[in-house]
Amino acid sequence: MRPVDLVVRFEWVTIAALAIVCYAMAGFSWWLFVLLILAPDLSMLGYLAGPRVGAVTYNALHVLIAPLVLLLAGALLAGPVTTAVALIWITHIAIDRALGYGLKLPTGFQDTHLGRISRQQDGVSS
Q1: For residue 120, what pLDDT is reported?
Q2: What is the mean pLDDT of the chain?
Q3: What is the mean pLDDT of residues 61-86?
């Protein structure tokens, strides 16, 4: 792995940690966190309709724009549930990116904007 890849992954780990710290400091329910942390991955069901539809549905829930807008709405409207959901969603995306999972290309689930997801000889995902 190139040094720049490590830096980018560390940035995403930092974002995930920051979102979790903010979540904890706000005193939100950890049951809600556990319930929703993998919810964006339900978007993978789009792959049942093929790789093009799957990429669209997956990417719709794995870009930061929507949860950041939700976070802003929660802050401006004093909506604690909205803020909690946004922080969980941001955490999910950041963990995915830290693990090397990117936005999907319409050619297949393994093809991402970060490169192809594959198992290397040492068992590390890229």
Answers
A1: 56
A2: 91
A3: 97
DSSP 108: E
Q: Which residues contact 11 (CB under 8 A, 6 or more apart)?
A: none
Distances 114 to 5, 20, 79, 100, 102 between C-alpha atoms, Å: 10, 24, 34, 7, 5
Please check whether residue 93 is in contact with residue 85, taking contact to mean a CB–CB distance below 8 angstroms.
no
End-to-end distance of the chain based on CA atoms, in angstroms?
Answer: 8
Only one residue has tokens 């920051």, namely: 18
The structure tokens listed for 122 are 């040492």
State phi, psi for 121 to the nearest 5 degrees.
-55, -35
> What residue has token string 């997956």?
58
Burial string for 101-117 (b: 16+ CB within 10 Å, else e) reads bbbbbeebeebbeeeeb
Residue 108 confidence (pLDDT) above 90: no
| pLDDT band of 119, cuts 50, 70, 90 | low
- CA 97, 101, 107 angle in degrees (round to 5)? 140
Among 71, 63, 78, which Cα is nearest to 23's?
A: 71
